[in-house]
Amino acid sequence: MSHIYITDSSLRDGSHSVSHQYNTSEVEKAAIALEYAGVDIIEVCHGDGLEGSSINYGFSAVDEMELISAAAGVVENSRIAVLAIPGISTFTGISEAKRRGASIKSIAT
Predict the structure, then answer these.
(1) Topology given in CATH for the domain delimited by 7-107
(2) Which of 12, 72, 99, 103 has the highest count of CB atoms within 10 angstroms of its CB?
(3) Using CA atoms, how far apart are residues 27 and 21, in angstroms rounded to an integer?
(4) Is 16 labeled as catalytic in the residue annotation?
């Protein structure tokens, strides 16, 4: 039987509901709980994708690279993902997210 991979986007898409105001403590606690629940992939970044924090989409309370580092620092088995949107995300941002612990990049349009 094939393994079904569970992805959770609460720490990205869910940030819309709190106007992108997650802090590192909230992200760490959520990542720990999600890993404990068996979530394979945890998506962490601005709700409008990597580098979305702007006047156009709403400013994040904490730099998303710090949030990525926070999540990556507390999980052992879950993988951290980011969402990249052409025209918003840059190669520099994607590279920095990888350096901070994001091993999966999703692309959306």
Answers:
(1) TIM Barrel (3.20.20)
(2) 12
(3) 11
(4) yes
